[in-house]
Amino acid sequence: MTGILEFVAPSDAFGEKLAQASDDFGHIVTSRPMSVLTPRSPAEIQDILALAGPRGLPVSARGGGYALYGQGQVDGGCVIDMGALNEVRCLPGERVLVAGAGALWSDVVRAALAEGLTPPVLPDHLGGSVGGVLTTGGFGGSSHRYGLVADQVRELDVVTGTGEAVTCSHDRNRGLFHAVLAGLGQCALIVRATLRLVPAPPLVRRYRLYYDDPAAYVADQRALSHDDRFSHVSGQARPAIGGSWDHVIEAVAPHSGRLALDDARLIGDLAHDPDTQEIEDLSYGEYVCRLDRDERILRVTGEWNRPHPWLTLLLPEEAVASFVPAVLADGPQQGLRTCGAVQLRPLTGATLRAPLLRRPAGEHLCLLSLMRTALPQDPEGVRRLVAANQEVYERTRTLGGVMHPSSALPMSPDDWRVHFGDAFDALAGAKVRYDPHGILTRGYGLWR
Ligand SMILES: Cc1cc2nc3c(=O)[nH]c(=O)nc-3n(C[C@H](O)[C@H](O)[C@H](O)COP(=O)(O)OP(=O)(O)OC[C@H]3O[C@@H](n4cnc5c(N)ncnc54)[C@H](O)[C@@H]3O)c2cc1C
């Protein structure tokens, strides 16, 4: 317990930490915590939670700060800055990596690639923390084959809402393991994760294939996500002349550099426009860090620091060809034509294993992210975009779709109950057992 006083001692950086913890990447919701603590060990997190629980002091962890709607904030409570728990090491001779929950995915990639290895699924953006991404599930370009980033976890070390340190996995404390992966930080804070690794290819060949017919795009994306031609498949809708939208598939094949890849076999049967296709060889490291350049540009233009009323949805694939063009034609979505991006990611139902990751029924799914940037000096405009998110979400539900919790979307406890559906009772039971004081991660607003 001796460390606690050190955590709260004011320092020059303290005001800055409070300001940071009052905000997130969304820049829509702000709430000021009473304190920001930076524990140096899991034992110090145990101390904080053991102290906070009986006092009813709300606590949230903060990793990369990429939440969009205050999910990691805690008004008048305590934010635990996970940044010091960032050790990453590969276990010698094993295809396994152990990462502190505050490590960023860029740290994980660096350590794994140094051994010629990689996690089978990585988020596209590597600036989030290990803990933050595992609590939402984590999608990446290879999710159609291997599922969530969270599905690659072998073991977790967590601290529950009562301050108890527990190691959990499929074979050990399975109920808690399942309550933590994609569990929105409700039952425990993750302090360390053991991740499965696979050999990393030295090179990849990236194909960018352009479509002006949404139905042809959906059909090809579906075909590619159900055969083994490509290790990574994702897509985007892009603004086209005349107010319509074109689509692009980005498909990636591993490449040793020794044997030539057969482009005709890989893309010869697809319905894209062959005159505009782009083919490029990259090192695997360059590929997984591909968003670094975009981030640098958006930081320079200032867009990175603007409000981000993003919405991410999981849809039954059959809804995509009609629903996505209809949504993109809505008035409030027109800003996406100039400021933001529309991502479409094919997913396969059976590969998504974490029970708390909610998804539509069926095997053929698609993740839709409407990632728009708003003007900072127009809070009313931001409110309108959040309201538009609610309206799109309602329409999604009528199609059997669900939201993904890293969205700028107000959700009431009743909405969450509907969201979790038949998993709600298990989550509520785990909450009572592992966080009986109800102090953890209130920013989602799951409970009354
Ligand atoms: C630019 C950008 C790109 C993105 N790209 C992807 C992507 O490719 N794939 C994808 O799946 N998602 C993506 N996301 C969503 C992102 O992964 C999630 O929002 C994730 O939760 C962010 O992690 P973080 O460390 O930044 O979390 P924070 O904002 O720090 O926290 C997010 C939530 O996780 C909780 N949390 C953080 N650490 C812990 C912990 N150790 N234990 C328990 N709870 C914890 C927080 O309290 C909060 O509720 C992206 C988001 C942005 C803004």
Produce a short descriptive summary:
The chain has 448 residues and is an alpha+beta fold.
Characterise the protein shown here.
It is a single chain. With 448 residues, the protein is of the alpha+beta class. The chain folds into two domains: 84-200, 2-Layer Sandwich (Uridine Diphospho-n-acetylenolpyruvylglucosamine Reductase, domain 3); 203-403, Vanillyl-alcohol Oxidase, Chain A, domain 3, CATH 3.40.462.10. Helices cover 31% and strands 23% of the residues. The strands form four sheets. An eight-stranded antiparallel sheet has the order 14-11-13-12-16-17-15-18. A five-stranded antiparallel sheet has the order 4-5-9-7-8. Strand 7 (153-160) and strand 8 form a beta hairpin. The site of flavin-adenine dinucleotide has 33 residues, from strand 2, helix 5 and strand 9.
Task: Look at the structure and name the CATH superfamily of the largest domain.
Answer: FAD-linked oxidases, C-terminal domain
CATH fold-level name of the largest domain: Vanillyl-alcohol Oxidase, Chain A, domain 3
> From the alpha-carbon coordinates, what is the Rg to the nearest angstrom?
22 Å
Query: In percent, how much strand structure appears in the residues?
Result: 15-25%
State the helix count: 15
User: If you average the pLDDT, what whole number results?
Assistant: 95
- The residue ranges in which pLDDT falls below 50 over 5 or more consecutive positions are 1-9
| Architecture (CATH level 2) name of the largest domain | 3-Layer(aba) Sandwich
Counted beta strands: 18
- Structurally, the number of domains stands at 2
